[in-house]
Design goal:
The complex is a heterodimer of chains A (296) and B (295). Chain A is an all-alpha fold and 296 residues long. Chain A is built from 17 helices and no strands. Chain B has one domain: MetI-like (MetI-like fold, Orthogonal Bundle). Classes of the chains: A mainly alpha (296), B mainly alpha (295). Chains A and B meet through helix 1, helix 3, helix 6, helix 7 and helix 8 of A and helix 1, helix 4, helix 5, helix 6 and helix 7 of B.
C-alpha cells in the first residue's frame, strides 16, 4: 500500500499542497505528518529566536509583562559585550585553541588511523580498544587530576595547556571516524605506489589524505566544536587573560541579578558560528554524527 | 584487509606514537594520578608539599557522604528519564517521517542546531525560558490564568526542567541516527513482508525494529554515557540547586574540588564516576553484543 502510493500522482499533489480537496485517508496521513513536522520545527526554532530577539532588547523591554515579539531593537547589549568585557580577547583565545587543537588532532589522528587500518603490528588490538575506552571518559573525571598536573607542569592558565587536553579529548572520536573512511580507500592505489617506490609517509600525505577529505571535514567540525564549546576544563584551566568564550559567558550569570540582555547577546555571539556552520554544512554534520554508529 | 606486510618494523609505531603519547599524557596519566590523589588530604590552593597521606580515609568519608549518594541518585534519575524519553521520541519521529516528505531537509538542519551550539548557551537559553519572572514558559502559563511558577527553584520541578532541556537538546541526535539507519536498511525483507500482507505496524515491529537494533543500541549507549558526562546545563541552570536536587555526579566533583577545596575527596568521587562509566559500557556491550554482531 505504501509502495504504490509513491508512484501515485494524486499522492504527489497531496505532498505538494499538504491538503487536497479529496480527503482520502492518505491525504490526511500526509497532512498529519506535515503538521508534526511543523510543530517540531517550531519547537526547535522558537527558543533560538527568543534568544536572538532578547539580545536586541533593553532591560525595560525584557522586564515587560508578556513576551514582546515586536519592539524597537537596540544594539546596546552587543556594544556592552563587545567593548567592555574583553570579548575580543576571549574570542581570539577560543579561535586559537579551536584551530590549533583541530589541526593537531586531525594530523596525528590521521597517522594513527592509517596505521590501525593498514598495518599489522604488535599491540594494535590494545591501542584500538584502548582508544575506544578513552572516548568514554567524562571530562569531570579528568578535571581534578588535570588541574593538579597542569599546574605542576606550568601548563595551567596557558592556551597551550588547553590545546593539549582538547587534542587528547578529541583523538578517540577522530580516530574512530577516520578509520571507517580510510578502510574505504582501495588498497590497490597504495600497492601501486609502493611498486613505484613511495614510502609510507608519502603515501599517507599524497594518496590517503586527499581521498578522505569528507572524513577529515566531518572530524574537523566536531573537533572544533568541542574546543569552541567546552566549558568545565576551560573554567578550571584558564585565568582572566586566557579565558575562552563559554567561560566568559558565565561571568554575567554569577553577577547579582542576571543581565538577560547582555547574556543573550553573548550567547548569540557564541552560538553564531555553530548556527552558520549548521546551515552550510548540514550534510557533513550528519555524516559525522552517524559515522561509526550507522556505518559500522 | 590491506597490505599487512607492506611496511614492517618500526614504521607502524612511528605512525601511532604521537596519538598514543598524547592520549597517555592527557587521559591515562591523569586517571592514574587521580587514583594517587584519592589517598591524600590536600586543600586546593596549598602547595603540593602540604598534602597529607591519609590512606583510605577519603574512601571511608565518601562511603558515608550523603551528598555523594544523592548525586549518584540524581545522575541515575536524570540519565534514565532523559535517555528513555529521547529513545522513544526519536524512534517515533523517525518512523513517522521516514518516507520522504517535503521539508525533511529543513527539519534535519534545524534539528542539528541544539547539538552544535555550546551546552553553556543551551543552559542559559533554557534558564531564560524557565525564568520565573521573564521566561517564555511562564508567559504561556499566565495566558492560561495560572500564577507564575519558580521552575528552577522549586523542589521537584528543577530536575524535570533540566530533563526537558536535555530531551530538547538530544532527541534530534537519536532521530538523525535512526533515520540514517532506516534509510540504509535492506529493502528485500520489508518488501517481502508487505507482499505477505503485513500491516505497517507489523512491518515496523517484526522487520524494521529488529534490523535497526544495532543502531538503537549504539545510540542508547552513546546517550547514556553522554548523560553521565553532562554538567554544563546543570551548572548554568541551577548550579545543582535547589539544595542538591540537580547536583549530578560531575557537578559534585567540581564543587567538592573547587568550592569545598577538597582535592582528595573529589578524586575519590571521580573514581566513582569512572567506575559507573566502565560498568555501563561493559554491561551494554554484553547486552548489545548479539545485536551488534548480527551486523
Amino acid at each position: 500500500m505504501k509502495n504504490e502510493s509513491l508512484k501515485n500522482p494524486a499522492e504527489r499533489d497531496a505532498r505538494v499542497g499538504g491538503f487536497t480537496a479529496d480527503a482520502s485517508n492518505r491525504g490526511a496521513w500526509k497532512a498529519g505528518k506535515s503538521f508534526l513536522l511543523f510543530i517540531l520545527a517550531f519547537l526547535y526554532i522558537v527558543p533560538v529566536i527568543v534568544l536572538f530577539l532578547t539580545s536586541f532588547k533593553t532591560q525595560i523591554q525584557i522586564m515587560e509583562k508578556g513576551f514582546g515579539w515586536f519592539f524597537m531593537p537596540t544594539l546596546m547589549n552587543y556594544s556592552n559585550v563587545l567593548l567592555e568585557q574583553g570579548f575580543l580577547r576571549y574570542m581570539t583565545n577560543s579561535l586559537i585553541v579551536g584551530l590549533a587543537s583541530t589541526f593537531v588532532t586531525l594530523l596525528i589522528g590521521g597517522f594513527a588511523s592509517y596505521a590501525l587500518v593498514r598495518f599489522n603490528f604488535f599491540g594494535k588490538g590494545t591501542i584500538s580498544f584502548g582508544t575506544l575506552l578513552l572516548r568514554m571518559i567524562p571530562p569531570a573525571v579528568l578535571v581534578v587530576p588535570i588541574y593538579v598536573l597542569w599546574s605542576y607542569f606550568g601548563l595551567a592558565d596557558t592556551l597551550l595547556g588547553l590545546v593539549i587536553i582538547y587534542v587528547g579529548l578529541n583523538l578517540p572520536f577522530t580516530i574512530w571516524v577516520l578509520i571507517s573512511f580510510i578502510a574505504d580507500v582501495p588498497v590497490e592505489l597504495e600497492e601501486a605506489a609502493v611498486v613505484d617506490g613511495c614510502g609510507p609517509w608519502r603515501i599517507f600525505f599524497t594518496i590517503i589524505l586527499p581521498l578522505i577529505k569528507p572524513g577529515l571535514a566531518a572530524a574537523a567540525i566536531f573537533t572544533f566544536r568541542i574546543a569552541w564549546n567546552e566549558f568545565i576544563l576551560a573554567l578550571v584551566l584558564t585565568n582572566r587573560v586566557t579565558r575562552t568564550l563559554p567561560v566568559a559567558t558565565t561571568i554575567y550569570l554569577t553577577d547579582t541579578g542576571v543581565e538577560w540582555g547582555n547574556i543573550t547577546a553573548m550567547g548569540t555571539l557564541v552560538a553564531l558560528p555553530a548556527i552558520i556552520f549548521t546551515f552550510f554544512a548540514a550534510k557533513q554534520l550528519i555524516a559525522g554524527l552517524t559515522a561509526g554508529a550507522v556505518k559500522g | 584487509m590491506g597490505n599487512k606486510g607492506l611496511f614492517k618494523g618500526i614504521t607502524p609505531y612511528l605512525f601511532v606514537a604521537p596519538a598514543v603519547l598524547v592520549l597517555a599524557f592527557t587521559c591515562l596519566y591523569p586517571v592514574i594520578k587521580g587514583f594517587e590523589l584519592s589517598f591524600y588530604d590536600w586543600s586546593l590552593g596549598t602547595p603540593i608539599e602540604s598534602r597529607k597521606y591519609i590512606g583510605w580515609e577519603n574512601f571511608v568519608w565518601a562511603w558515608q557522604d550523603p551528598a555523594l549518594f544523592n548525586s549518584i541518585k540524581v545522575t541515575l534519575i536524570f540519565a534514565a528519564f532523559a535517555v528513555t524519553a529521547e529513545l522513544f521520541l526519536g524512534l517515533l519521529i523517525a518512523f513517522l517521517l521516514e518516507k520522504g516528505i517535503k521539508g525533511i531537509a529543513v527539519l534535519r538542519t534545524v534539528f542539528i542546531i541544539p547539538i552544535m551550539i555550546a551546552p553553556v548557551v543551551v543552559g542559559l537559553l533554557w534558564r531564560y525560558l524557565f525564568d520565573a519572572n521573564f521566561g517564555l514558559i511562564n508567559h504561556i502559563v499566565s495566558l492560561f490564568g495560572f500564577e507564575p511558577i519558580v521552575w528552577l527553584g522549586t523542589p521537584g520541578l528543577a530536575l524535570p526542567a533540566i530533563i526537558i532541556t536535555d530531551i530538547w537538546q538530544w532527541t534530534p541526535f537519536m532521530f538523525i541516527l535512526f533515520l540514517a539507519g532506516l534509510q540504509s536498511l535492506p529493502k528485500d525483507p520489508v518488501e517481502a513482508a508487505q507482499v505477505d500482507g503485513a500491516t505497517t505496524w507489523q512491518v515496523i515491529r517484526q522487520v524494521k525494529l529488529p534490523l535497526l537494533a544495532p543502531v538503537i543500541w549504539v545510540a542508547v549507549i552513546l546517550r547514556i554515557i553522554d548523560a553521565f558526562r553532562s554538567l554544563e546545563v546543570m551548572f548554568i541552570m541551577t548550579f545543582g540547586g535547589p539544595g542538591r536536587e540537580t547536583e549530578v555526579l560531575s557537578l559534585n566533583i567540581y564543587k567538592t574540588a573547587f568550592m569545598s577545596q577538597r582535592l582528595g575527596l573529589a578524586a575519590v568521587n571521580s573514581i566513582f564516576l569512572l567506575a559507573f562509566i566502565i560498568l555501563l559500557s561493559v554491561a551494554f556491550l554484553i547486552i548489545a553484543r548479539p545485536a551488534l554482531s548480527r551486523k
